[in-house]
Design goal:
40% of the residues lie in helices and 15% in strands. By secondary structure, it is α/β, with parallel strands linked by helices. The chain has four domains: 164 residues, Lyase, Ornithine Decarboxylase, Chain A, domain 1, CATH 2.40.37.10; 248 residues, TIM Barrel, CATH 3.20.20.10; 88 residues, Up-down Bundle (Methane Monooxygenase Hydroxylase, Chain G, domain 1); 49 residues. Strands 4, 13, 14, 15, 16, 17, 18, 19, 20 and 21 form a ten-stranded mixed beta sheet that branches. The structure holds pyridoxal-5'-phosphate. Pyridoxal-5'-phosphate binds next to helix 12.
């Protein structure tokens, strides 16, 4: 049977998670659609990679697509508007983007600029984020929601933001904060907008949902909320209490939890109005999930609802309770981060090498040893001859027993190294046969199920899990990973991915699958004359700045790709990744000092006559070029 791009689509399921932004085109390459998901704006990721390499920018590279970000902002705002209109809801929607999800200046600038037509604002969780937000926001109708731990300086900055025409809202997250807010507001004589963050009793399912429940570290319980109300009333500032906030956690897979959360919050909202606060704003936090594995299920890498359903349900729950309690419909604020930026970035990496465990049938260490009998292999050969569908488990047991025996004989010097090599080769040959037979069988004992994983190849990718995909390492998050070219050819290898940090944690051996997680990824044998390039998709949320400098691999190169109205593509905001000198200085080495130390060492070598002055020069040139170079593996570039 011929392999077609439909087969590739079926295998990697790009139409299911790509959301119309990514697809396989007729040329067998993954394309990104940048404008309104239209085909005319489709461009091949492999061509972008090649174009960058021609310009001297090396892989790995992080591609950012601000057109996709714009499309996401438009989508969430228009979805809420539609739900509001259809339901006859009396309030409006105002989104705020939580800076922590992707703090890159480009992202903040784009959201403030493109989001202005929807009055999309920002959410901050720290003083540094507030300082960035105050500079970029300039829409008097957008909100700037100030969460997180607040000292006097944070509060003063937020209050002064009001004088600049920015609608800051100070959200009380901890019991003591309201005292300071009252003090500072009186001192500066500025009328604040105050919010309270409640602790929802709903604990949502999923990976990132510790934010809910009694023990969550942020938010006030019911007693504490009442205390805040009383304190504000006493200070004559209850009319400043405008907003109720809650956050159930991120990537909430089940719509049921979202509904319950909205219901509970609406009751609190109504309760605050009853207490005499003016209110007007109900902030439902983040949590809107992304379908990373394309399964549309309530598993932690997916979600069992659409954007439209999310908006419909939130609007409906709030409206029902407001109508019942006869209070005006509030402005609905949401703090979706992941849902806005996940599609925004793609990591492209090249494969540096592969380690093939399936034995190479063209090479056999036995052949090269002319005539030597190798009796140690007799038992293995016997197993090979006996193997059939009925005795696979038995053969596997024998196989492992005899290999152990040969290894022991090796320890006692009874088997030499070449004989051991021949035995290992034979062992893997038989394992591959067993695995083939096992594939055709319906019921498999557990030991046989795992064979494919044991026999899988290791592909070494030019990237660091710790730097670029921290959630893969920390919480086993799945991202769609696939080759971005050669998709009109059948992938013939099963592999896991290893990064280049030489850390046993620096690997990926879980991949998205149709109904369950796959332990291997089907890949092509890397082409001889070209890079084999893999893309890791949907990495725009939470990955960029969580990364650590494991083994001192730094930031990757970055480039933004946008669609130009003339029908072409523009590359801009090229940012060189960290150099070796950069990452060394992060851990407090001084590159100048390092150079000086090497120069001294080389000088004494010259003095002692161990090297010539010319050799010294070469050593120093190589050393300084290394310092200035990329921390990732640099493939030699022609000319
Ligand atoms: C992290 C966070 C968010 C963003 O959540 P997403 O699931 O990415 O939309 C929103 N609000 C608060 C308070 C957060 O801590």
């Amino acid at each position: 049977m011929n392999w077609t791009i439909e087969d590739a689509n079926e295998l990697y399921r790009i139409d299911e998670w790509g959301n119309g932004y990514f697809h396989i085109d007729d040329d067998g390459e993954v394309h990104v659609r940048l404008k309104g998901k239209s085909n005319e704006s489709s461009i091949s990721l492999k061509q972008i990679a090649s174009g960058l390499q021609e310009r001297g920018m090396k892989l790995p590279v992080l591609l950012r697509f601000s057109d996709i970000l714009d499309d996401r902002i438009k989508y969430i705002n228009e979805s809420f508007s539609q739900s509001i209109t259809e339901a006859g809801y009396q309030g409006v929607y105002r989104g705020v983007y939580p800076i922590k999800v992707n703090q890159q200046q480009q992202v903040i600038e784009e959201i403030c600029h493109f989001g202005k037509q929807y009055h999309h604002g920002l959410e901050t969780g720290s003083k540094a984020e507030l300082i960035a937000a105050l500079a970029y926001m300039d829409d008097p109708e957008a909100y700037l929601i100030c969460n997180g731990y607040k000292d006097e300086e944070y509060i003063d900055l937020a209050l002064r933001g009001i004088l600049l025409g920015i609608q800051t809202v100070l959200v009380v997250e901890m019991p003591g904060e309201v005292t300071v807010i009252i003090e500072r507001a009186k001192e500066l004589n500025i009328t604040p907008n105050i919010g309270v963050r409640m602790k929802p009793s709903t604990v949502a399912s999923g990976h990132w949902t510790d934010s809910g429940g009694d023990r969550s570290s942020f938010g006030l319980n019911t007693t504490q909320i009442i205390q805040v109300v009383d304190q504000l009333r006493e200070a004559g500032m209850l009319d400043c209490l405008k907003l109720l906030h809650y956050h159930l956690g991120s990537q909430i897979p089940n719509i049921h939890d979202i509904r319950i959360g909205a219901t509970e919050a609406s009751r609190f909202y109504a309760g605050l109005i009853k207490e005499g606060a003016p209110m007007g704003l109900l902030d439902i936090g983040g949590g809107l999930a992304i379908d990373y594995d394309g399964s549309s299920s309530n598993s932690s890498n997916s979600r069992n609802y659409s954007m439209k359903e999310y908006c419909d349900d939130v609007v409906e729950e709030i409206m029902t309770i407001c109508n019942e309690t006869k209070i005006p419909h509030p402005t609905i604020i949401s703090e979706s981060g992941r849902a806005l930026v996940a599609y925004y970035s793609v990591l492209l990496m090249n494969i540096l090498d592969t380690n093939v465990f399936r034995p190479n049938m063209d090479y056999d260490p036995m052949d090269t040893q002319s005539g030597k009998p190798m009796p140690a292999l007799d038992n293995l050969r016997y197993v090979k001859n006996m193997l059939n569908e009925k005795n696979t488990q038995e053969c596997l047991n024998d196989l492992n027993y005899y290999r152990e025996e040969i290894r022991n004989k090796f320890l006692y010097g009874k088997v030499d190294m070449r004989e051991r090599a021949a035995a290992e080769h034979l062992y893997w040959t038989i394992m591959a046969q067993i695995s083939e037979i096992a594939k055709g069988q319906e019921y498999l004992p557990p030991e046989l199920m795992n064979l494919d994983h044991q026999l899988s190849d290791i592909y070494y990718g030019n990237f660091s899990v710790f730097q670029s995909l921290p959630d893969v390492w920390a919480i086993n998050q799945l991202f769609p990973i696939m080759p971005v070219h050669l998709l009109d050819q059948r992938p013939t290898r099963h592999a896991i991915l290893s990064d280049i940090t030489c850390d046993c944690e620096g690997k990926i051996d879980e991949f998205i699958g149709r109904s369950e997680i796959q332990n291997t990824l089907e890949l092509h044998a890397p082409p001889e004359d070209d890079d084999y390039v893999l893309g890791v998709f949907l990495v725009g949320a939470y990955q960029e700045t969580l990364g650590d400098l494991h083994n001192l691999f730094g930031d990757t190169n970055v480039v933004s790709v946008t669609y130009d109205e003339s029908g072409t593509f523009k590359l801009h905001n090229e940012l060189d990744g960290d150099t070796v000198a950069d990452v060394l200085s992060y851990v407090e080495y001084e590159p100048k000092k390092l150079e000086a130390l090497i120069k001294d060492k080389a000088e004494s070598a010259v003095r002692d006559g161990r090297i010539s002055p010319q050799q010294r020069r070469k050593i120093i040139t190589t050393y300084t070029a290394g310092l200035r170079g990329y921390t990732y593996y640099e493939t030699d570039q022609e000319d």
